[in-house]
Amino acid sequence: MTLKEDFDDYIKNKVYEHRVLRKMSQKELADSVGVSKQTIFVMEKNNYSPSLVLAFRIANFFGVDVNEIFSYVRKDEKDD
């Protein structure tokens, strides 16, 4: 059994909400934090968990605490 099979947790995010409030495109945000547009796209779909550095970079860009944008979801919390 691999780690992925043992743990079905992930990082939930509100990147989309913050980006839309700023009236920014995915490309504009990507350029601002040093990643590709594709990275922002998959992150907003919760198909990619950013590194800690990228998570903090995004939070700092929006001027908020990292916990306001990113939250840890455990397998047993998904049904809530």
UniProtKB/TrEMBL annotation:
GO terms for molecular function: DNA binding. CDD domains: HTH_XRE. Keywords: DNA-binding. InterPro entries: Cro/C1-type_HTH, Lambda_DNA-bd_dom_sf. Residues 15-69 form the HTH cro/C1-type domain. SMART domains: HTH_XRE. This is Putative transcriptional regulator. It comes from Lentibacillus halodurans.
